[in-house]
Amino acid sequence: MAVDKPILAVEDLTKSFDVSAPFLRRLVRREGRSILRAVDGVAFDIPRGKTLSLVGESGCGKSTVARLVVGLYAPTKGRILFDGQDLAQKRSRREMAGIRRRFQMIFQDPYASLNPRWRVHDIIAEPIRAHRLAKDERDVTRRVALNLERVKLSARDGEKFPHEFSGGQRQRISIARALASEPEFLVCDEPTSALDVSVQAQILNLMKDLQRELGLSYLFISHDLAVVYHISDYLGVMYLGRLVEVGPARQVFADPQHPYTRMLLDAIPDLEMTGKKRIPVGGEVPSPIAPPPGCHFNPRCPFANERCRVEVPGPTHLGERMVRCHAVEEGRLAAEVARVASAER
């Protein structure tokens, strides 16, 4: 996807959770273990200074990927390389501290991610003190004020408590806290989903300004395609734990290849009323505990055939894009799209 060395590379990332009933209950009912594979062989990379967004329906595994990247979960399989260093190989606390300072996470809910008993100054000062970035308390105060001003708040706001701010202002405080350790990479887990639409735009514009000013790289998790279109350089589409399409965002939006990507984009209202034929996403998402064999999307896909129902699709590379779809690999989908386009003309 990128020629330059990526700041983050994820290789064959897998995470499984044991969601079995208690042992005695399974013994009485003669049931086996239930394993939920939340992330299944995901691979992508993020160039330095760019944004990769992961989108998909609720439960597709995108937030699990975010938590794996920052170390809140340990991967069942696969590797996470940050600036060429395998995070799984870093054993000592000292080794991890130097790397963890360089990436931070912004959480979804600004009401739950800030300590209500701490003043804003102490919330932002915590990573500065933890990573020993300041010479003394005066330097701590200076750095806190700088980060508050970066997110368009006042240095005097540091004396207030989180409950004195609106949702958008709290998310700005969360961003200021993330910036306090001078990171290079931010994992953003739906940072605007709990905010009003007008406030969402302000936060997104702030994040883009900070990216240009500080050279930040983002992994952005969202289910809102309008938000993703505004902020993304690259776009990854996930379905039931698998990455089904990834590539430059403008290319994916202009010419989606995977049937699921097409259906997601067709769900966006056509405000220009072009009359273009649209295929909405139909059916229910299968259970992630017992997903369908072959391509997970085959029960809902209008292009599925017998091969789709038994064989897991491998990666098909189309320029800078990667798609996992038998219909794309065989050319069936392109032929059908061409037929529909000629019929519309």
Describe the secondary structure blueprint for this structure.
Elements: E1 6-18, H1 23-29, E2 35-47, E3 51-55, H2 62-69, E4 77-82, E5 85-86, H3 93-100, E6 103-106, H4 120-130, H5 137-150, H6 167-179, E7 185-189, H7 197-214, E8 217-221, H8 225-231, E9 234-239, E10 242-248, H9 249-254, H10 259-266, H11 306-310, E11 316-318, E12 321-323, H12 326-330, H13 332-344
Parallel strand pairs: 3-8, 3-9, 6-7, 7-8
Antiparallel strand pairs: 1-2, 1-4, 4-5, 9-10, 10-12, 11-12
Helix pairs in contact: 4-5, 4-6, 5-6
Helical segment tally?
Answer: 13
Range of helix content: 25-40%
Molecular shape? globular
- Class, according to the CATH hierarchy? Alpha Beta
Main beta sheet:
8 strands, mixed
Structural class: alpha/beta
Structural Rg: 22 Å
Q: Going across the biggest sheet, name each strand in turn.
A: 6-7-8-3-9-10-12-11
Beta fraction of the residues?
A: 15-25%
Defining traits:
single chain; 345 residues; alpha/beta; Rossmann fold; 8-stranded mixed β-sheet; 4-stranded antiparallel β-sheet; 36% helix
